[in-house]
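My main concern about presentation is that the manuscript never shows what a single data entry looks like. In essence, backbone conformation is discretised, so a fold becomes a row of integers matching the chain in length. An entry of this sort, consisting of the sequence and the corresponding backbone structure tokens, reads as follows:
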Amino acid sequence: MPSPLTLDEIVEALEAEDDPGDIILFPPDDGEVTDEESGDENEANILHLPSRMLRSQVEVQNRPSISGENRVQYLEEREETDVPAPKKKKKKDNTIKKWYSNFSSTSFTTCGIGDRDEEVTSNSHEEITAVECFELLYSDDIVKFIADMSNLYALQRNHTLNVTGDEIRVYIAILLLTGYLTPKYMRMFWEVKSDTHNDLVASSIRRNRFLEIQQYLHLSDSTSLPPNDKFAKVREYLTKLNINFTANFKKAGSSHISIDETIVPYFGRHGTKQHIHGKPIRFGYKLWSAATRHGYLVNCEPYQGASGPDLKMQSDLGLGAAVILELHSRLPQELGPYNLYFDNFFTGLPLLKCLREQNVGGTGTIRENRLENCSLPNSKEMKKEPRGKLCYKASEEIVAAKWHDNSIVTIASNCHGLDLITKVDRIGFVDKKRAKIQVDCPAIIKMYNKYMGGVDRFDENVDSMRVALRGKKWWFPLFAFGLDAACQNAWLIKRQSENNWTYCDFRRNVAIVYLQKYGKPPNRNSSCGVPLQIRVPTEAKIKELCSLADYIPCSAHSLNLVGECAAEYAFSAQEACWFFERGNFDKYEQQALELSLVKEYEKDTKRIRKRKLTADESAEDITSSLSGRDTFRVSLERENCPEQ
């Protein structure tokens, strides 16, 4: 064991150029044992050690000798471990340095397609039916995908569904039908009452089969869902729809795209449900949507909330700008360049610069705190100016302006200028009376108002005839939204060739053709009851037997006989009422006649025995036996009897 070192020897070893190895300080062995903490080691001072530590033993443990190339490699590794952590890179400065008060001082040029009007690339002479338009977007592979996932889910729940693509189409047609013909309950379509019965639906699919498909409908394999996607159950379904929407975009295409948020109504519990105060639909799922001026939905992306995964460029430009760049990347590039329009949630000067670098036009209202160093007049001061007042600043890349309309509108663009100034109609005051006036409007405002409302137009069309069925699964509103969006987009494609189609006519046509083409009349057997043609309500049956009889159903809807005393006098309803009509039975005419009809029929015989009067019985005997009873009950017994 090496000899202990003194304090001076330790200092000399540390000051020596050569590495002495590891110097180990052992705790003192003086019999004092304690479990107290020694304090913060980072705050210890080597020059003020306690005497107990100074009396302890210190040893030097030499490291293995390293020479030659190994020593150089060892020293390099030590240097690498001692290198401090690299500093964070500073974000790129996107601030615009110079703003000018007139265009003559700048070399501002537009990007995207500039001020040109929209360009529709569809072939208006192409003739295509309504169903073919719908199947372009809600294609066979989507129907097959729904059928496969539903059958898989049913097997996972120990149930055999065996649903086919034709049955899924019938199910879809009934959902489309509920958009313009909304029942209180879905079962009403199969009821026999004339006010709610729908023969087209009832003759296409059995009620229990429809409810079975509704119960086991599914859009994913629940055993292999990604853990970080809150919309995993509908992700593949929405992806297939987006692919079809984008692929057929050229049939109703436009170079001007508006981007905004869409709310799918949902009032249940889910981590992504949003609440937006003041909106027509306050609760539901939020989707980022890109649409044309007329409402054709090109692409959509569900929003997973603040805890969801970040989009590309979100850390640099923020959520709003990242949404714009993501949706633009999904547009078909062969139909570009595009002009994009968005509201003040998305707009920022760095976003407009980024779009300009990609030759994409961008125009949007902007919040004043995002103008950076662009000094426009204060909004409160501009409200004192007359309507139509315009103030602007321009750089070589962007134009920012404030315009006085009903309120102050702040807008920025990299593709539209201010010329030409046109007149727009507004309601104002002339001599303190309300009147129509004309206000100067710059070109940037006119183009924004013309193309910005695409997503709102889409929401309006979908909300006018939304699927009325409310499922129990949290994702069912998104499934129904995809169906409504496909139908609305298909209608816009159809209008390119035939402009006289309304959305209601188009939706009805698809539903009727699907029900007639893919529906199968139910095969009824003895367990399913009598055929629909001869199945009539119980009230009608009683009235056929006796016009004076009233139907009073029992509370439990039992098939048993109504009263015990009815078995004694099992007359037919006609014979019983015949006695009431004979006269001298006034007190019985005011009583309620209860009839219990047995609804079970044998397969081959449906006759009901009618007990007839015997020679020993007379009308007086019967009426005397009935005297004193509060109610007269007549029951029809079911019995297999030969034909008479």
